[in-house]
């Protein structure tokens, strides 16, 4: 019977609910018969199958995914999502640093829009002028809102060489702009190492599984070359793997608590500690509105431990952590389970990291980083600070 799979999903949901909130044993059938809301689900599913005009096209897997997505969406948390098996694969691609698409990191915003956290440096989206804070209104003529964040991501990805049209609401002037972008193979080099005279430059574009190791290698190489200081550039870094940020913190920060995670009871669920072996070379940190999550964890620790001056603009303000749980059939759940706090116990969520020195960029700047040194006022300020005795 087709209803069996639907009942199985509800049984799983109810098993979680009854386990968490009651002590006496209640069967699924008892809960279904006594709970009007779950009873409605069964009735509605039966009605759809019998009366929907195109009922022959109904796919069980789509109904199942819709039910589970709706359950998690009921939390009204922009970061918690039920993920289909296809969406789980794409999430894995992002954390390993390679995929095909336009190279833009997006997030559901509280205003119900799909918002750009940052374009990946040098990506097709970056070259097309997509910027942190832009709103994505349409993709290939289709409307997308926060609850369809996964569908929006899927629509923008595709085989290299194909194109996608995106209607943006630009943050800087609140005007709409349509861009057509050709997809490419996106290989994210999370660490960019360079030198500006006798000053070392390390850009961290995101935190993936290799970032910590690659950062330590770049730091050691620049130190051996005798640079006077390091500019650590995390502008436009949307975050990623927290363990990578911890590994970097271990390399540049003194012995201390790095970050503390607390659950919904206010209890500490994880307390990351740093050892006492670190590189104490002079350092300046660059951040902006596109610096989020793991980059804010690292910036917050650097600030609290007085390790370096922070220059730029106040960061994004994503201070909550999501656990990704793999389910038996390849699908999964991304759930907000804890909030992180800096070494001094400060929350970052919806607040961000305020720089020690706030520096505006020129309004018509074409890019940031070493390639745009003539106009990158934030980078110029960082160089000035490093040169100070």
From TrEMBL:
Record EC number: 3.4.21.-
GO molecular function terms attached to this record: endopeptidase activity; serine-type peptidase activity
Pfam family for this entry, one: Peptidase_S41
Gene Ontology cellular component terms for the protein in this record: outer membrane-bounded periplasmic space
Keywords: Hydrolase, Protease, Serine protease
Source organism superkingdom: Bacteria
Family matches, as InterPro entries: ClpP/crotonase-like_dom_sf, PDZ, PDZ_6, PDZ_sf, Peptidase_S41A, Tail-specific_protease
Domain spans labelled PDZ: 88-157
Gene Ontology biological process: proteolysis; signal transduction
Family affiliation: Belongs to the peptidase S41A family.
Name recorded for this polypeptide: Putative CtpA-like serine protease
Biological source species: Peptoniphilus gorbachii
Higher taxonomy: Bacteria, Bacillati, Bacillota, Tissierellia, Tissierellales
């Amino acid at each position: 019977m087709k209803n069996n799979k639907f009942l199985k999903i509800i049984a799983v949901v109810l098993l979680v609910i009854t386990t968490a909130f009651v002590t006496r044993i209640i069967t699924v059938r008892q809960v279904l018969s006594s709970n009007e809301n779950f009873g409605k689900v069964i009735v509605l599913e039966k009605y759809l199958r019998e009366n929907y005009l195109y009922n022959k096209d109904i796919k069980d897997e789509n109904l199942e995914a819709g039910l589970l997505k709706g359950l998690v969406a009921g939390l009204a948390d922009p970061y918690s999502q039920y993920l289909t098996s296809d969406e789980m694969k794409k999430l894995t691609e992002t954390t390993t640093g390679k995929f095909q698409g336009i190279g833009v990191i997006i997030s559901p915003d509280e205003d119900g829009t799909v918002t750009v956290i940052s374009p990946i440096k040098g990506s097709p989206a970056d070259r097309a002028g997509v910027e942190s804070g832009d709103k994505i209104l349409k993709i290939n003529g289709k409307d997308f809102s926060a609850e369809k964040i996964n569908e929006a991501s899927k629509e923008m990805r595709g085989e290299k060489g194909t194109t996608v049209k995106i209607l943006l609401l630009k943050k800087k002037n609140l005007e709409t702009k349509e861009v057509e972008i050709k997809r490419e193979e996106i290989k994210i080099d999370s660490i960019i190492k360079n030198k500006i005279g006798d000053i070392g430059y390390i850009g961290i574009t995101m935190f993936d599984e290799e970032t910590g190791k690659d950062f330590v290698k770049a730091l050691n190489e620049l130190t051996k070359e005798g640079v006077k200081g390091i500019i650590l550039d995390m502008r436009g870094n949307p975050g990623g793997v927290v363990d990578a940020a911890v590994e970097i913190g271990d390399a540049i920060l003194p012995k201390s608590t790095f970050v503390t995670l607390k659950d919904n009871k206010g209890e500490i669920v994880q307390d990351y500690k740093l050892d006492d072996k670190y590189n104490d070379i002079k350092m300046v940190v660059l951040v902006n509105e596109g610096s989020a999550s793991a980059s804010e964890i690292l910036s917050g620790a650097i600030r609290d431990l007085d390790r370096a001056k922070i220059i730029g603009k106040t960061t994004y303000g994503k201070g909550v952590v999501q656990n990704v749980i793999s389910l038996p059939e390849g699908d999964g759940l991304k759930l907000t389970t804890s909030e992180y706090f800096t070494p001094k116990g400060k929350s970052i969520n919806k607040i961000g990291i305020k720089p020690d020195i706030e520096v505006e960029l020129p309004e018509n700047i074409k890019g940031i980083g070493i390639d745009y040194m003539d106009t990158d006022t934030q980078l110029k300020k960082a160089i000035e600070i490093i040169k100070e005795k």
